[in-house]
From TrEMBL:
Family affiliation: Belongs to the NDUFAF4 family.
Name used for this protein in its record: NADH dehydrogenase [ubiquinone] 1 alpha subcomplex assembly factor 4
GO aspect biological process, one term: mitochondrial respiratory chain complex I assembly
Stretch list, region Disordered: 16-42
Compositionally biased residues, Basic and acidic residues: 17-27
Domain of life: Eukaryota
Any Gene Ontology CC annotation: mitochondrion
Pfam families cross-referenced by the UniProt entry: UPF0240
UniProt source species: Agelaius phoeniceus
Quaternary structure and partners: Binds calmodulin. Interacts with NDUFAF3.
């Protein structure tokens, strides 16, 4: 309700107020700052000549300047939460088979790539008698307790298809009528 009232007052006599503002004489602009006047003077040939002229005194001072730069000696901090590798990590080639293009080629010993993890989990799920935790640990250079944790807590997804009869049985359930 309040919006309608304010709209009426706002739109009252809009055309005449707009034409009055348009017909007003334009106000004189504020005086320019003196730096703006210097920009206009920069086009003059005397200023251009002064800018491009070489000053011999400045050139001799510039030739006397010599800068020598040395890096400070590098200091290695002990401890502090950082650990520097004492030797280069041993790496092993991945066992990927037909998924070779999807993953890295070398991983450090004691670690596995994502594709390898999915492969070994799927192999263990399909054939748990063949792919035991001990065989997986030996095959992928892993610790036995880590492999046991991996097999216990990570399970690959399984796709299940429901037969049409079970869908029919589910949808045939009729809600009770209240009488």
């Amino acid at each position: 309700m309040g919006g309608r009232v304010t709209r009426v007052f706002r739109n009252f006599n809009v055309e005449s107020r707009a034409s009055r503002e348009i017909s007003k004489e334009k106000p004189t602009p504020a005086p320019r700052h003196r730096t703006a006047r210097l920009d206009a003077m920069a086009d003059s040939p005397e200023i251009k000549e002064e800018v491009f002229r070489k000053d011999d005194r400045f050139l001799t001072l510039l030739k006397d300047v010599y800068v020598e730069s040395r890096d400070p000696p590098v200091r290695v901090k002990d401890g502090g939460g950082e650990h520097l590798p004492s030797k280069q990590e041993e790496k092993r080639l991945t066992k990927l088979g037909h998924l070779e293009g999807l993953d890295v080629k070398k991983v450090p010993k004691g670690k596995i790539s994502l594709v390898e993890a999915l492969t070994l989990l799927n192999n263990h799920k399909l054939q748990p008698q063949i792919w035991t935790a001990e065989k997986i640990a030996a095959e992928y250079s892993l610790e036995l307790k880590e492999v046991n944790s991996l097999l216990e807590f990570f399970i690959p997804f399984a796709v299940q298809e429901f037969p049409k009869e079970s869908k029919k049985a589910i949808t045939s359930h009729k809600p009770k009528k209240l009488t």
